[in-house]
Amino acid sequence: MKNKSGISAFMLFLTALIWGLAFVAQSEGMKTLGTYTFFTVRSGLAVVFLFCLYAVKKLRSKNKESSAVKLDRKGRRDLLISAVICGVSMFIATIAQQNGLLYTTVGKSGFITALYILLVPVFGLFLKKKVTPVMWICVAVAVTGMYLLCLTDGEGLNKGDLYTLVSAVFFAVQILTIGYYTEKVDSVKLSLIQLAVGCTLSAIFMLLFEQPTFAQIKEAAIPIVYAGVFSSGVAFTLQISAQKNISPTIASLIMSFESVFAALFGWIILSQSLNEREIIGCCLMFAAVISSRLPLEKITTRKKLLLGIDKKRNADV
């Protein structure tokens, strides 16, 4: 079991690396294609990839007794509702993120996007989920970090930062939706349909507001293939497989490293550097993200319990 957990942790780390590099792919792809065109082609490619993967998996399990059971009416309804909510949320989040990359750096985008991990428990209040004092402290630290990162030289949030904040909000909505329906629907089917929903919405806007050419798509082929196959297809598959053997808390902590990889790849590939103030802001935001996923209150409670036991023993002596 420990061996499987270690392999799963590595898979999630690889997922974070792939997603971090995807920020660079999106930034480069946007130089040639419009926002909706890039997302349409990217998500369409991801749908084809995941469908082929699912078909191969189904063929392999065709003769096994553990083959998939047909969904009843309630199961189909849950799958449809969750896929539509996730698809719309993913569409808005990704489009906002891609628009943000037109006005802000890859590093900033990665760290601001990582705020979804803090937004999830805050939004969870509406679902009557308790938010601990430690979490509120993490939110305050993250806001401070974002202030140092984004509000430089006396200026306010730029257009790209605001777009990215919107992206973080809707990624949080998507995560909460998946968390609610995860036990009711098949993960791969949910992924396929949500990508199809996002692709359809994006295609409509693409036809209305953009006029892409095959030459433009061909020029952005490498970013499209990476963002579609690797970021949406491979990384998602790795995430699903890995979370079978590792807790969601540890998984989200490992995946939050995408923000670090985004800044690193932005520096290496695009020569996008951060000044000292922005680096401090990134560190505060990253520390808040990590701290939000650590069982600090459980550790404190355990220490108090042990201290109480020791005091009782001393009193008895």
Task: Describe it.
The structure is a single chain. With 317 residues, this protein is mostly helical. The protein has one domain. Helix content is 79%, strand content 0%. About 2% of the residues have low confidence.
Layout of secondary structure:
Blueprint: H1 2-29, H2 35-60, H3 73-100, H4 106-113, H5 116-123, H6 133-150, H7 159-181, H8 187-209, H9 214-219, H10 221-242, H11 248-255, H12 258-270, H13 276-292, H14 296-316
- What is the straight-line distance between the termini? 43 Å
Low-pLDDT windows of residues: 65-69
Mean pLDDT: 80
In N-to-C order, the SSE pattern is HHHHHHHHHHHHHH
What is the number of beta strands? 0
Provide a concise account of the structure shown:
With 317 residues, the protein is mainly α. It has one domain. It contains 14 helices and no strands.
